[in-house]
Amino acid sequence: MQRLLAACALLLTLLPALAHKPSDSRLSLGASDAAGRIEGRWDIALRDLDEVVGLDADDDGTITWGELRRRHPDIASYALARLTIEADGQTCRIEAGEQLVDTHSDGAYTVLPLQIRCGATPGQLSISYRLFADIDAQHRGLLKLDTAGGTRSALLLPQGEAQRFTLAQPGRLQQFAQYLVEGVWHIWIGFDHILFLLSLLLPAVLLWQPPRWLPVVRFAPAFWDVVRVVTAFTLAHSITLTLATLQIVSLPSRAVESAIAASVLLAALNNLYPRVLGRRWMVAFGFGLIHGFGFASVLAELGLPGGTLLLALLGFNLGVELGQLAIVGVFLPLAYALRRTWLYRAAIFAGGSVVIAALAAAWLAERAFNLELLPF
């Protein structure tokens, strides 16, 4: 028991590193008119801006509208200095209008209305994005670009090279590939989805024989258990992702996010106090239906091209599955190799389940009651 407690304490010290959600901003650009003018909108999280601009003037842990409004010029100056847009090789002029505030699923964002003047109708845009490059290597910009040829999405990397976009309508294969990459990326940064999946995978290489978990003898039973769990989870979230994206079914964002946190909590607790064993695939399917609505909210923020909506939906969904299979492909062989060791059974399985349950409980409280409990 002392070893288990020590392992849990060690894992809890690593909690911020394990659970920190990489920050992102949302940059939306519209189609240009005949004079080369482009209207846009840039949503940037207040929690990120507070680190570089210092929004909380009285340091009371709350950013008021007055505090935010006083720093609007500094926010605009900081952000625009880190965004460069070129049209056919010529630098465009970017101006920010009066800022607003909007709320996304992960908190409050300042909204910068953008007026971009390029001088002529561009055939190609080049975007250099450097927001928070000096403080957060994991930060990403989510670009939604509307053109006469349709809507497309892309990831903007602060430390990467400028990205170029031809404004003619992209081919179907190109759009499919774009949303495939988005799907892979969003499962990798969706820590609640990952922790739910890991909670279901952790016991795959163990067998419950009261009062303890024992290592499985052969790899095949563990493999097929994982196949059933992953297949059920995939089928379930694919169903609700499609229904929500096609606007056939819609659920409140707070309810969905709270239910996702609850699913992570229950899956982790089931490892510590086993109640559902032989039919864990049913748990994966049931909660996978809720997780699908979470994926749909991400896809809605990215935007979907009207003419090839189903193709983009298929690409995003397949990307989610590829990202998920990559996690399984790394985890399962390592877990099987370590299944007989104290490191796996006490530290990774038991200690990891404790950490996941604690984090999910905090998420649930935050999402259900609109609280701020975690410092990350």
Q: Whole-number average pLDDT?
A: 86
**Terminal CA distance:** 30 Å
Quaternary: single chain
Low-confidence stretches are 1-20
User: Count the strands?
Assistant: 13
Number of domains: 2
- Count of helical stretches: 12
* C-alpha-based Rg, rounded: 23 Å
Series of H and E elements: HHEEHHHEEEEEEEEEHHEEHHHHH
Tell me, what's the shape? Answer: globular
Structural class by helix and strand composition: alpha+beta
Largest sheet: 7 strands, mixed
Q: What percentage of the residues does DSSP assign to strands (E)?
A: 15-25%
What level of helicity do the residues show? 40-55%
Describe this protein's structure:
With 376 residues, the chain is of the alpha+beta class. The chain has two domains: 2-18 and 190-369; 24-170, no CATH class. The chain is 52% helix and 20% strand. The strands form three sheets. Strands 1, 2, 5, 6, 7, 9 and 10 form a seven-stranded mixed β-sheet that branches. It has a four-stranded antiparallel β-sheet with strand order 4-3-8-11, with no helix packed on it. Helix 9 runs antiparallel to helix 10. It is globular.
What can be said about this structure in brief?
The protein has twelve helices and 13 strands. With 376 residues, the protein is an alpha+beta fold.
Which secondary structure elements does this structure contain, and how are they paired or packed?
Elements: H1 2-13, H2 15-19, E1 24-29, E2 37-45, H3 46-53, H4 65-70, H5 72-80, E3 83-87, E4 90-91, E5 93-96, E6 100-104, E7 107-117, E8 124-129, E9 140-147, E10 150-156, E11 163-166, H6 172-189, H7 191-201, E12 206-209, E13 212-215, H8 219-245, H9 253-272, H10 280-302, H11 309-338, H12 342-369
Parallel strand pairs: 1-9
Antiparallel strand pairs: 1-2, 2-7, 3-4, 3-8, 5-7, 6-7, 8-11, 9-10, 12-13
